Amino acid sequence: MGAEDKKSPFSLRAALGAQWLPLTVLLLYLWAFGASKDEAIRALVLAGESFVSVLPILIAVMALTGLIQVRVDRGRVAKWLGPGSGAKALIFAALCGMLLIGPPYVIFPLLLSLRRQGARWAVVVTVLAAWAVKIQMLPLEVQYLGWPFAIGRSLITLAFAIPLGLLVEAVMEAGRPRG
Amino acid sequence: MSGIGFLYLGLVALLYGLCHRGSPEKTGKSLRVSGMTFLKLLPMLAAVFGIIGLVQQFVPPAAVERLLGDAGGFRSILIAGLAGAVAIGPPLAAFPLAGSLLEAGAWPPAIGTFVVSWILVGVLTLPLEIELFGTRFTLARNGLSFVAALLIGSLLGLVL
User: Fold this and answer.
1) Structural domain spans, chain A
2) What is the pLDDT of residues B79-100, one digit of tens each?
3) Which of B39, B44, B125 is nearest to A10 (CA)?
4) ipTM of this predicted complex?
5) Number of CB pairs < 8 Å for A and B?
6) What residue segments make up the domains of chain B, in order of their start?
7) Are B119 and B110 spatial neighbours (Cβ–Cβ below 8 Å)?
8) End-to-end alpha-carbon separation of chain A, Å?
């Protein structure tokens, strides 16, 4: 598959992106230590405390991520979603999007294969939009932002998935000869 | 606080137990994938919690409130949306950061926009997306997703 061949430069780019932030933060801390050692140490302690306090939740979220990643067969999802085109396909796309887990450089090639299997643009975008619900991270979201926020955001994000898909599809097809 | 964390851990362990019955060979694989993901994310997580420490220690809540507070209205939502769009990092990192901003006095609709924009709009992944799907799709999807993030945050403000 074409998308697979291209995978390595993407993960390289992704790896570069991933190390960018830690390096910046390291520099910021060096600057902070230069400016005020006491305050920098206090910042470090605050950082450590907040990390330790959510560590169990982080581990739980990771474990759930691994479980879904192994149990939900991405290729099969693509095969199911490919040919559908009606309202049912869009609803199914929203549900599948919520269950798909992985970083963008894994999800994008998957969506490309979906498109190649005949999925309409609206299905592709709906999957990606519903992917933003992040159901597996709900415990973390609740912890930091509270129940009303987490539930409200998830439901509203889900409600936007299909309209967003249809809108992007409309843009894609505007001004193009049909059929 | 960590009591809740251990409750989640227990629930996930239960889920693993249930799945283990169906096909035990996948349990080990799931755990390995989880561990690998965690290790891969660790530098990023350390960085994000490092930022949270710096924000709490060095950024005065007044500054957060001025940029992202409710007094700013739509401007706060817009700033949060732009910050989320250029943010680099896994969605997992968005929540702790959003939490520390909320605590410092940010407006919930702005924070809702920040989270959705962080996940859905990727300035950093634009080149990858263009390569796979073309410029027209990428611009349409990211542009409309950005507008959606603003709307989702605003609607969240009506609900909360």
Assistant:
1) 2-173
2) 999 999 988 677 888 999 999 9
3) B125
4) 0.84
5) 237
6) 1-42, 59-159
7) no
8) 27
